Structures are given as structure tokens and as C-alpha cells.
Amino acid sequence: MVDKEYPSINFQRLISDESCGSAVLEESCFYLQAEILNQLPSSLAQQNIHHQHQDRGTKETLISGEKHPGQARGASNRASTVPLKYLPACMQRKRELRDLRNQQRSTIGRWESWRRSQSINMRRLGEHVGGAISSLLPWSHTLHSIEGRFGAGVKAYFVFLRYLVYLNILRGLIIGGTILTPTAMYSRNNWGLQTFQGNDSLLDFFLGSGFLERSPVFYGFYSRGSLELPCFNTPLLFLLGTLSVFILSLIMVVRRTVVGYKHTWLLDNRYNIHMSFKVFCGWDFCIQDPEVAAIKLSFIRNDLKSYLEEERFQLRDAMRTLMERLRLYLLRVFLNILVMALLGGAFTLIYYATLLSMDQQHNWFLSLLFQYLPPIFITLANFTLPHIFRWIAVFEDYSLAVQVNTTLVRSIFLKLACLGIYLFFLIKYIKNTETDQCWENQFGKEMYKLCMFDFLTCFFKAFFVSYPVKLLVSRHPSCWLARLLGQQYFLIPFNVLDLVYGETVSWVGLFYCPLLPYIGTAKLVAVFYIKKFVVLQCCVPAQRMFRASSSSVLFNVMLLLGLIMAAITLGTNLHRFVPSSGCGPFAGSKTVFNVTAVCVDVLPRPAQTAVRYLTSETFFYFLILAQTVLLTSYESRRRAIAKAIERLKDMLVMTSSDKHFLLKQNTLSLRRQRKKSKSPAVAPGSEEASSTPQTLTPERPL
Amino acid sequence: MGTTASQLEKDLLSEYQELTFLTKQEILLAHKRFSELLSKEDRTLHNPRVPMVKIISLPELKSNPFKKRICHVFSTSDTKDGSLTFEDFLDLLSAFSDSATLEIKSHYAFRIFDFDDDGTLDSGDLEKLVNCLTGETDDTRLTPEEMRQLISNILEESDIDKDGTVNLSEFQHVISRSPDFVSSFKIVL
Fold first, then answer.
1. Same structural domain, A645 and A540
2. Dmax over Cα atoms in chain B, in whole Å?
3. Where in the cell (chain A) (predicted)?
4. Which SS3 state, helix, strand or coil, does residue A627 take?
5. Which pLDDT score, from 0 to 100, does residue A373 have?
6. Residue A602: which of A139, A228, A120 has the closest Cα?
7. Rounded to whole angstroms, how far apart are CA atoms A598 and A331?
8. Which residues, 6+ apart, have CB-to-CB distance to A60 below 8 Å?
9. In B, which residues are within 8 Å of A155 by CB distance?
């Protein structure tokens, strides 16, 4: 490191002491240090495992392995348990290692050898099963090609979509087991094919009225039936099915969120490693298309530049004067009020649309239009407002990342709140006007309409907006309209918002429209193909690519929000409103939860007491207390670990600087020694060394 | 070795399956693709090598800015010309396969990014790496000021023991916290 003109001549490995008296005159510090570094136990351990196959290399490792018995043992121990393919070494080296292991195996006992081969067989079997299962996953080829052209972010969207399909299938299975099968077996209703009647039309398919209303799609179809045991009857199973769907969804979504969260935010906040990520994990090796590669390059460049700029932005932000700061905050407050006003306006519009949609109209077209008015307004608000929010965020003078996030958070709030407000007014209205009819059916119908409308929007947006625009832009690129519209990008956050919205509707509607999971599955499969068409045919890869990991956490957090909202809505509904007396499995009981009380009453007395205790408030206090204790202990453990990490980091820095200091000292003393041994004409050791030159080019462990 | 034959021998195939992360179909496909790269006279040779120029013309590698480094890392050639034998090629595909572990992938990534092969990522390596990522031409490069800021940022974040370079374990430490890495460090034929 000191002198640069080190000669590229042979020099010796400092394996033993006598080789110190080298005949080579000017050794550079650099080589000496490299030599010593090479002999460090840590590098030897690495060498042992993944040394490139060279006779010299292996021999040396063996020799030095003996010098550091502890280290060598560690490495060989590791090497004998890890499967060969897990070693980062070339094929020939792996073969040798395998032969070595086979030799070892002949020396070990029969039991040990049998055990090892069994464990290998088991592992292989597991791999085969895993491979077979993963080959069952649909669309892997499609996902791969999308990833190749649009990067991991867009793929994350499709993986999320696929995951929602699974979730829907799972929900469908639960519903099938707990609601549909008992109804089919014990229902007094006619389960046969629902036939068209005189006044039915195809329109009913979109409105959920007519023959659909009489079909098992809606709540009203299901009745108590002949299954009449106190603890095993249709209503109870109905409730059980819904509850288990919610609990299972909650577990699955939380698990997925936590897995992603653990990786990204929790660690990132403490130890900021954004830049290293961007550089070390920046390139997507799946990319094959040269065009996409060029885009990725420019994306990384822009990303790095914007990040560096953001750093400078923060510097600038820190230097703002009080006056500027005040003005900025005032502006932000004003803009936030504007955002609130926009949101309020949107909510009011939805309220009036809901009121209007309840009016009876005689003209079929007007009736269809009015019936679909709330979904249309919701979609319209969701379509325009996010773009306005994006525009507003520019003026708020936040850094870029914060801008994107605020827009997203506002959009999420808008989307879910719209739905929530719609549901609230809907329930209120339905309850006020239609006490005699089956209000659950009415509610289910609204959910069905939302679901259908969501799908129709997706369909029309793809084939009547995206595709024509793409045709226009590609055929007549000079046309002013084409230039105005420009290239289309696949905006992942907004697309995910649509998915989450659909899922929330499906969760809320589950109770009132039990076939919704099946409809949802079919819808999502169709959406998959439509979106695939949109992405592959109409979109160009975005300049600003989305990171897959952080985005998938974001997706799942949004889904979780949707789930919580759905659970709250459904819980309030079930708790507050009396089930209608004329239809459904709960006809005649005061609240939906009455069926559980009936079941509890027939249980033996100790069980009754236990159940009563478990559902009482006292138990909840204990539960909360236990949770608090658990959380406190985890929190203190986290703090202790964080402290330990800090201390270990300091220690690492200290040992590293110690190492370098010792290295320097050692190198200096070696140089001095060599200078000394050089001055006598023929040093005893040097002659020997030069006669048998162990010529080595400087080599570092790879 | 049966690599020159148009079909792989059965026991060799199972050996490859044991030593790599590839499935049987993937190995056979790799063999087919590799044989296509060989010239006629090469096929008769024992354990033929495909020169680097031909390997990097594969569509899977063509647009990769690290294609030459990848060849050099996986090549067992004594002359360090980046040429690959079939087994080297399988090693490459295995490390980049779907089922390879994070440890394997990060190890090879480190070696690919270690441009001067000295076992650590120093600021020279990092500069070359960043240049690969942003494009090599003058107008796409970062300005020297930006580059300096970026490298000092990276070292600040990843160089835990503060010795001025990023070594393998520090690198793996960073990589292990990126869930994206495994899915993006992938080349599938």
C-alpha cells in the first residue's frame, strides 16, 4: 500500500519460519500484507471450502489446515454436513469433496453411514415433493416473461394477484364445506337449476335481481333446513363459515405482511442501507431484452441521482430560515385542507348517489344507470382524485419518496373510506325503508353490483381505453392526441389498490352473498389475463420501477386495512341489525349471535361456565394483561439485542483496526528481517529457497 | 466425460443433479444450448471449451452489464480467458437457478462484483460496479462528485469494521436483508 512499484516476480509463501530469509530483494508491503491476510484463519476457512481446484491450492490448504486445527475442524465439520451443491465451488472441486466424504464414510460406523445416507435421501425426497408442488403453481411461465420485460415490481403485482386467487379458492372451500354442503343436503328449498321466469332478462345478471335473487348466490336462499341439532345446525354453520374465513384471512395476511416487514422496514430504520441495496441488488439478472436493460440502466442512474439529490435536499431543508419554514408549513396546511375538502366532496357525492340509487325507476335504462350510480361515482372519485393528489403533493415540497407515499396513503384512505361511507349510508337507508323485505338480500345485491362493476371497469379500461390509446400512439405517433396521452405505464400502486378494493368488497359481502368467493375467483382469474394483456400489449416499462419487497409489504398492509375495515363493517351489521324475519337461516332470531347462545345452553354445566367465562369481559382483561406482559418482555429483549449489536459493532471496528495495526507492524518487522538477511552475501535459508523456488503468483482467496 | 455426446449419460446426469441445483430437464436443456454453441470440430474434443465471446452472445446474458465478469468468475480455464466448459456452464446456471440459496448467490455476486479479484470490494471495485449499473458511456456516468458521495455512502452503510473495504461477510450481511436479491439474481434458460 505504501510503494507502488512492487515487482511482479516470484516470492515465497511464508509458511514456515526459514522461508523468511528470502532472496528476493524488495518485497512490497502490499504483497506481504496480502500474504499474511491469506494465512488468517478466516480466509483459510473460506479457502478450505471453495478453493478453486488446483493441486497447489489444495495441498497448501491442507498444510495450513493443520496449523489451525480449530479452524480446519470447523470447516470440515461444516463441509461434511452441508449438501455438496450448497458449496460455492466448481464442479471438479465438489467431486473431490464428495470422494473425500465417501472415504470418511467408509471410516465411520455403519449406523452413522446409514443415518447420513438416509438424511440425504429424505432431503432429496423433500426436494422432489417441493419441486412437484411448485410446478403445480399456475402461470409461472407468464410471471417469468413479465418479470423479464418489466422487472420484479410488476411481477410482484401479479404474484399478489395470484395469491388473492388462492385466498379466494380457500375461502370458497370453507364456504363450500360449512354453508353450501349442509344447505344442499338438508335444505327444504328446491336446489334444482334456477330457471328463467317470464320477466327475467340478461340485465338481472348485472343487477343481481330476478333469477339471481332466487338463486343460492344470496343470503335469502339459505334457510334453516332440517338439520336441527342445537349445536349443529345451518345457521351456526353459516356463522362458523364466515368467522373462520375472517380468522384464516387475518392469519394469512398478517403472516405475509410480517415476513416482508421484518425484512424491510424494521431493519432498515435502524441500519440505513438503502444505497448499498441500490448498488448491490440493483441489477435484475432476469432481464433479457436489451431495450429493457437500457431502461433499467437509466432507471438505476435516475434512482441513484435522485437519492443523492434527496440527500442534498435534506441538507437544504436543514438550512431553511424560520420565515421560509413558516411559509412552507402554511402552504402544507392549506393543501391538506384542500385534500380534505376534496375527500369530503367525494363522500357527499357518494351519499347523494346512494340516495338516488334507492329510488325506483320504471325505464330500464334509467333503472340500470341509477342502480349503478354509487359504484360509478366511487370509481370516478377513485380514478380522478389520486391524480389530483399526486399533483398536489408536488407543491408540498416534500422529498420524492415522501411525495409518492403521501399520495398513496391519501389514495388508500379515499378508496377505503369511499367504500365505508357507501356501506354506512346503504345500511342505514335499507334499514329505514325496507323493514319487511329481505334487507340482507338487498345488501348482498349491492355488494354483488360493486364486485361486477369493478370487473367491468377493469375490462372496459383494458379494451376500450388502454388498447385504443396504445394503437393510436403506435400508429400515429405524431398526432397531437397521441402526444398528449403519451406512452402508458403500468402504475402498480393504483392497480394494487383496485385489487384490495375488490377483496374488501368480497369480504364484506361474504355473509350476504355466500357465492362471492367463487365469483371472486373467476373474476380474479379473468383480471389476471386482462392485466397480462394490458401489460404485455399496451404498456411500456416504467421509468420509475417499483421495488418488489417494499411494495409487497405495502400491498399486504393495504390488504390488511381492507380486511380490518370489512371485519368492522360486518361486525357492526351483525351486531346492530335484527335479521329479517322472512328469509335466511337466521329468520326469527333476534340477533345473529343468538344461535351460539342456544348452542351454549345445551352444553353440560361446567362447559357452559367455561364458555361464559371465556366470552366475558373479565377474561378479556386477563388477555390484555397477558399481552401487555408479553409485549413488554419482547420490547425489553429487543432493546437488549439492539444494545448488544451496537457493542458487537464497536468490537468489530476495534478488532479490525487492531488487525490492521498488527499487520503493519508485522510487515515492517518482516521487511527489516529481509533487509538484514539480504546483506550477507549468501544467507543459509535463501539459497535453499531459491534453489527450490516455490514460485507463486500472489493469490488471494476467492 | 460424456459431454461431447449428444445425449448425456445417465449416471453423469444424476451426478450433475446431485452437485447442482438444476433439475433433469434443466440440465438437458443446458446441454442442448451448450452443444449449439460448440463448433463442429470442438464437439469431437474431450471436454471442449466455449470461448467467452460466444457465451456472452446468449440472449440470457447479452444485455447483462456483468456478462464478462460472470464468465470470468465461473471459468476454470488456466489462461483466465473466461471460456467455459459444460460443467462450468452448469455451475453458472446452478448458482443463478431458482432454488440456489441466498448464501451461494451472494457469494457469487460478491465475486462478480470484485473486479480486481482481490477478495474485497474496495472503492475501485465499487466505482466500476456503479459504472456498470449506470451505463459505461461518459454522458450516462455519474459525475465525479456524485460518485464520491455515493461510494462514501455505501462504505458508511456496509463497511461495518471500517477498514475502507466491503468484505464477503459484510456483503452477505447487506444482501441477506434484501428479500429482492434472491428473486433478481437469477438466470433461467
1. no
2. 57
3. Membrane
4. helix
5. 80
6. A228
7. 60
8. A13, A15
9. 183
Report the domain count for chain A: 3
CB A479 within 8 A of CB A472: yes
| Segment A373-406, tens digit of pLDDT | 877 888 788 778 888 887 888 787 776 667 766 7
> What is the structure's pLDDT at A629?
96
CATH architecture of B11-96: Orthogonal Bundle (1.10)
Does residue A464 form part of some domain? yes
Instruction: For residue range A458-492, list pLDDT tens digits in order.
Output: 898 888 888 888 888 888 878 787 777 777 777 77
Which of A47, A92, A86, A88 is closest to A65 using CA atoms? A47
Query: Is the CATH number of domain B103-185 3.20.20.210?
Result: no
CB within 8 Å: B184 and A152? yes
Q: Which amino acid is at A233?
A: N
Going B57 to B59 to B62 to B65, the CA torsion angle's sign is: negative
Q: Are residues A458 and A594 in the same domain?
A: no
CB-nearest partner of A90 from B88, B161, B171: B88
Asked if B174 lies within 8 A of A152 by C-beta distance, the reply is no
The mean pLDDT of chain A is 74
Q: Which amino acid is at A388?
A: I
Beta carbons of A279 and B184 less than 8 Å apart? no
**pLDDT tens column, A578-596:** 777 777 777 777 777 777 8
Q: Do B149 and A260 touch (CB under 8 A)?
A: no
In angstroms, the Cα distances linking A235 to A41, A366, B43 are 70, 38, 73
Q: Is A290 in the same domain as A395?
A: yes
Q: 3-state DSSP call for residue A98? A: helix
Q: Quick check: is A692 in a domain? A: no
Which burial class, exposed, middle or buried, applies to A130 when counting CB atoms under 10 A from its CB (0-12, 13-18, 19+)? exposed
| pLDDT score for A501 | 85
Contact (CB<8Å) B18/A85: yes
What pLDDT is attached to residue A418?
80
pLDDT at A63: 39
CA distance A85 to chain B (A): 5
User: Do B65 and A283 make contact, defined as CB atoms within 8 angstroms?
Assistant: yes
Give the per-residue pLDDT at A702: 39
pLDDT in tens, A114-146: 787 787 778 778 877 877 777 777 787 778 777
Q: Which residues of B touch A272 (CB under 8 A)?
A: 157
A304 touches chain B (CB under 8 A): yes
Q: At how many degrees (to 10) do helices B102-113 and B67-74 cross?
A: 110
In which domain, by residue range, is A447 found? Answer: 163-580
A279: chain B residues, CB-CB within 8 Å: 126, 129-130, 133, 150, 154
What tens digit of pLDDT does each residue of A10-61 get?
Answer: 333 333 333 333 434 344 556 666 677 667 776 666 555 544 433 333 343 4
Minimal CA separation from A327 to chain B, in Å = 31
Question: Tell me, what DSSP letter sits at residue A271?
Answer: S
Please report, rounded to a whole number, the percentage of residues in chain B having pLDDT higher than 70: 96
pLDDT tier, B163 (very low <50, low <70, confident <90, very high otherwise): confident
Question: The cell 418488489 sits on which residue?
Answer: A548
Q: Which residue has the higher pLDDT, A550 or A58?
A: A550
Cα-Cα end-to-end distance for chain B: 23
Contact at CB, A91 and B90, closer than 8 angstroms: yes
A286 touches chain B (CB under 8 A): yes
Q: Do the Cβ atoms of A281 and B175 come within 8 Å?
A: yes
Same domain, A225 and A268: yes
Spatial distance between the Cα atoms of A192 and A117, rounded to a whole number of angstroms: 58
Q: Residue A304 and residue B130: Cβ atoms within 8 Å?
A: yes
Is the minimum CB–CB distance between A52 and chain B shorter than 8 Å? yes
Q: In the listed set A598, A615, A632, which residue is the last one of a domain according to the structure?
A: A615
